[in-house]
Amino acid sequence: MITKTLLLSILAVPALACADDGFVSIFNGKDLSGWKVNTENPDSVSVKDGDLVIAGERTHVFYDGELGNHNFKNFELKAKVMTKPGANSGIYFHTEYQAEGWPSKGYECQVNNTHSDPKKTGGLYAIKDNFDEVAKDNEWFDYYIKVEGKQITIKINGKTVSEFTEPEDWSPPKGMEGRKLSSGTLAIQAHDPKSVVHFKDILLKVND
Predict the structure, then answer these.
(1) What is the dihedral of CA 194, 51, 147, 116, to 10 degrees?
(2) Phi-psi bin for 14: left (phi > 0), alpha (psi -120 to 50), beta?
(3) Are 110 and 137 spatial neighbours (Cβ–Cβ below 8 Å)?
(4) Residue 47: in which H helix or E strand, if any?
(5) Mean pLDDT (10-residue bins), the chain, 208 residues
(6) From CA 21, how far away is CA 161, in angstroms rounded?
(7) Alpha-carbon Rg of the chain, whole angstroms?
(8) How many beta carbons lie within 10 A of that of residue 170, not counting itself?
(9) What are phi and psi of 147, to 5 degrees?
């Protein structure tokens, strides 16, 4: 026998599954399920009070979950980010797991409000940089990345900060030959011991 309460719960499931226009949570706020930290300095990545906390020597944590088989081309990413003073980090896309070093494949979206590096939050690092302050330390801000075909769009708090269309004859900067569109996963960067950055509400929509 199905009670009224149970029936309402069943009817509510499809709405929850389709909530937020197809975006799926890829970080559960409890542990690193679906993520893989490289071997360089794994202690630089932790989960505390529901946040993904990035703090310590250089390392990267790669999305390794089921969505898109962690290998996608066209996508949208939403996340809430909070930097502590002087912090530097980044979000890579179209990358792949790498045991150590800066990821050689894919583009990096900058996270930096007050670090000494002049390239600030919302820029496509070394490709379409942003040098203006668009977010503040110690405050959560919305980070949005969209890749559609050859077009890359980065928005901070709903405002477009960087747009880049990769040319057909694209030649990446010297030493960054892997900075080009292909397909791959996401990675979040621990930059240095003085940089502390929190991430939460990480949502991904794969549009391939």
Answers:
(1) -20
(2) alpha
(3) no
(4) strand 45-48
(5) 42 40 96 98 98 98 98 98 98 98 98 98 98 98 98 98 98 97 98 98 96
(6) 23
(7) 18
(8) 12
(9) -120, 125
Which residue carries 């962690």 as its tokens? 70
Structure tokens at 12: 């509510």
Pick the CATH number of 24-206 from 1.10.10.10, 2.60.40.1180, 2.60.120.560, 3.40.50.150: 2.60.120.560
Can you read off the two tokens belonging to residue 128? 């379409």
Q: Both tokens of residue 97?
A: 């797991």
Q: Give me the residue label for tokens 């799926």.
A: 24
Query: What is the reported pTM?
Result: 0.90
